[in-house]
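Table S2 (continued). Query chain:
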Amino acid sequence: MRRVFILSALLLSFGFSAETLKGTPEEKAVMGYCLQCHSYDYIKTNAPLTQKGWEGVVKKMVNVFKAPIPEDAQKQIIEYLTKYYGKKE
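Corresponding output:
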């Protein structure tokens, strides 16, 4: 039973690796803006969302919580979240 649990945990962890977009502008935007306040676990807690759902989350961070995220970085963040933590519309 313990082996099943460990194997399951391992398999789940592979799907949410921080290495997914290592070094890309999208990953850098997430690292530079989102991860200042949130962890990757926070992203996983909200996932999966559609592109419109992620747009809403990012807009809320900017408009409600006053996160200083430039428009171009918002687009990169939404692209990253939709591609790797999204669900099909």
